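Run log // design_07
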């Protein structure tokens, strides 16, 4: 399908992660010019080379890092996919350290707020723009041992909805995509740690995690990044011209509620 975005310029943050890379692939195939950012310079260069993309490494957990990226990318951005995120510290919600809270909020939430102040006004002025924030199943179904992640991603969703309500009449449309338990380096790390703690293989750790922690994930497996990226790409397109302020779940049924 022609998404009608050939020649548009897109910023992808968190570009070297599993979902980020696949999103780059989908948008590049549609003729979009990419500007990629992530934390690790070497990996970023490799990914940018695959797509002939401009790039700038940045630590967007800080205001200085966001300001540096904003300067590097400029304001000529039609599409922005914000995939930056970490699950952060895990444990009893009442025992999480101040650092756990600040890290999750700065990386998962404030990075979006700071970059939006730079990127979105130009989209509004031009009368066309697409912003997609990657949230999580956790905004609809929080898990107690992931409370800092729950809160940070929920804040991101609320921010996205507020910006959409305020500015969608300008032609800049703002949406979220909420994946669940996708095969990425982040969930690989989670499952490797679980396997080590349980003294079992990673496959056994994944099976027990699905059984014990994700009982509603009826497809019974981790999702794949290439199953999330098409949803992101569609929301970046002209075909999604009547979609704004939404949180599209790609979760294999993991969320037990009807919708959010």
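design_07 sequence
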């Amino acid at each position: 399908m022609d998404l009608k975005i050939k020649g548009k310029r897109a910023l992808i943050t968190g570009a070297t992660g599993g979902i980020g890379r696949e999103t780059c692939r989908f948008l590049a195939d549609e003729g979009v010019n990419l500007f990629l950012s992530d934390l690790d310079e070497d990996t970023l260069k490799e990914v940018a080379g695959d797509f002939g993309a401009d790039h700038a490494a940045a630590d967007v957990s800080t205001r200085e890092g966001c300001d540096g990226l904003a300067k590097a990318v400029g304001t000529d951005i039609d599409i922005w996919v914000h995939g930056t995120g970490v699950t952060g510290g895990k444990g009893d919600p009442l025992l999480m350290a101040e650092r756990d809270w600040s890290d999750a909020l700065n990386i998962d939430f404030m990075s979006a707020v700071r970059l939006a102040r730079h990127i979105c006004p130009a989209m509004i002025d031009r009368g066309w723009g697409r912003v997609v924030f990657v949230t999580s199943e956790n905004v609809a179904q929080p898990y107690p041992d992931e409370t800092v992640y729950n809160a940070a991603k929920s804040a991101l969703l609320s921010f996205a909805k507020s910006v959409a309500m305020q500015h969608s009449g300008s032609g800049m449309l703002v949406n979220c995509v909420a994946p669940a338990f996708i095969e990425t380096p982040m969930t690989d790390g989670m499952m490797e740690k679980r396997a080590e703690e349980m003294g079992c293989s990673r496959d056994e750790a994944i099976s027990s995690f699905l059984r014990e922690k994700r009982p509603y994930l009826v497809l019974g497996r981790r999702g794949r990044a290439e199953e999330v990226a098409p949803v992101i790409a569609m929301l970046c397109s002209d075909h999604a011209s009547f979609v704004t302020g939404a949180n599209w779940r790609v979760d294999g049924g993991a969320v037990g509620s009807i919708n959010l």
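Strands lie at 9-13, 33-37, 54-55, 79-82, 129-134, 172-179, 247-250.
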